[in-house]
Here is the input.
Amino acid sequence: MTNPNNATISTIHLAEFTSGHALQIPTLRVLADDGTVFPGAKEPELSKETALRMYHSMTFIRVLDERMLAAQRQGRISFYMQCLGEEAATVGSAAALDEEDMIMAQYREQGALRYRGFSLEQFMNQLFSNEKDLGKGRQMPVHYGSRDIHYMTISSPLGTQIPQAAGYAYAQKLRGKANVTICYFGEGAASEGDFHAGLNMAAVHKAPVLFFCRNNGYAISTPANEQFKGDGIACRGVGYGMKAIRVDGADILAVYQATKLARDYALANNEPVLLESIAYRLGAHSSSDDPSGYRSKEEEELWRKNDPVARFRLWLLNKGWLDDAADKAQIEGLRQEILDALKVAEKVAKPGIEHLISDVYAEPIPELERQLSELKEHIRKYPEAYPITAGRML
Amino acid sequence: MAKMNMLQAINNALDLAMAKDDGVVCFGEDVGHFGGVFRATSKLQEKYGKDRCFNTPLTEQGIAGFANGMAAQGMKPVAEIQFADYIFPAFDQIVNETAKFRYRSGDQFNVGGLVFRTPYGGGIAGGHYHSQSPEAYFAHTPGLKIVVPRDPAQAKGLLLASINCPDPVIFFEPKKLYRASVGEVSEEYYEIPIGKAEVMQTGTQVTVLAWGAQMEIVQKAVEMAQAEGISCELIDLRSILPWDVDTVVASVKKTGRLVINHEAPLTGGFAGEIAATIQKECFLHLESPIMRVCGLDIPYPLALEKEYVPDHLKTFEAIKASVNF
Here is the structure.
């Protein structure tokens, strides 16, 4: 018999609900708080070189976040968002990918970006929206993107990248590429309609995409228990007919292992996989936010002990791959390096006036050319009012 | 009277509306305990309980659809969309549902009492996802009313009128002025009628028209023009839909000239609609072409925001060009 409803018919004769929490998804943990591997867990095969690249990406982001939030407080940049508490989730997942796998992130995934090789100068140029910024100074700080390293430019509207990732991965498949797309989003963004659209389409059209949900407990002020009533986000994957896995997001070995497994499966089967990382957004939502209005210091302190960087560091020390003193010196050096790069980037000129109208279309339409020439004429009349562009116009 | 900034005036209006009518309910992303990311709904949950002021999941289409449903039942939802830039997932619910509820049902159902509050506009280094002025998209939708206040007193009176309006209203709040605009506001309940412009200053040579956050910018331009001996009539449109054709026509018939300013891009902006109507109604009175001082036809930029915005200097130049045509 055909099954026009595409639903399993296993008959019962007395009415009975299936509970909303019938399915409870386990959480993968590999690395214990003391830096040892749990008995029964499998340590992923990581070369020393890769492990150190992961660690250095985490510490880089930790120091960058600290320094740039301070720069925002000093009024040197307009806005900032930290990755604090989610370094393992973003770096560990990126490390499990091929360098040519596409990354479509939300906005708090600088760990993945750094792992891919985004340079300190590139970070700074974007944060200062100067003329060397790959995005030509058009977006708020932290809206990074780089075609060269397969990192789609960030868009602020939430969840929009989810169905796009399905489409991108589908196109990778049609083009015969041995690559997947990873799509990061928060548990808050998973409430957007685009989440449903994206996961359903990826499943139906068999797109090799890894949906990576960073469940960090808060969407700005809204706690996860006011965001959804299901068991986390991972259980939804099952509803869409896809594989799902939940990991401790502060455990970089678990994140790495889960993502590797998901990638291999997605590529071999042309299917999406939903991953859920359980971590805590230790910082504010952004530099515009003050969490003291919606959560306690005690809660934050409790989670601060669950430091993903410290845990991985212990593992590296146990392995003898990291030297304590050298590491501390390296981090000190990094602080200076970041400060130096900041000072350089803030002095670089803003993009020229021609970049107001470039890239709206492949070529500026005549109306835009007309508007630009009118604007230039106006600026020549009042050069003191437009210090960024006046004096630099041809 | 009390000194209030725009956020306090909005909060005060919501407080009065909720006290007056238990059908008024406020919700949106972070609107509950936290009181909204800008704190417009501060303390309302404390005062009226979690049933009447609450956080929603992060879904604008959900918020709008939920609001439609509540309003159809007869309550008065005041739904916040955190930034006007994020209203677009709700576009279908607003354009195809909110706007057409009454019409499609032959007036059996309606969503009167529904208000979407949303901060709009630039000047906060927000780039293209925290600065847009999307009023024109909605102005193309019969069935909606659209209101934009310029100061605290207006924000309060217009918001109370919106909540009390038998039609659904989109209430665009100039976020640049949330804390910057401070003024004397009556603590009593009062309404300012929707659809009525305000002539802020009378003049004889040119009518200068804007709304919301652009009012303070055009005011500055008008002062510059007056210093050069140009007599300007200054009008705050206040409502985009319906807009007060009569007041603008009467003014332009007197002055013979019109300069319209808005922050949204020129092409397809609401100034075009105004210009078309005014040239029809005032054709024989016009002394010069109607001027539009608007954003460029580009996404709202970041580093070059100053260059993009229709500022006082561009407006001043347009006033002079209009008078000296």
Observations:
- Chain A has a mean pLDDT of 96.
- The first helix of chain A runs from residue 48 to 73.
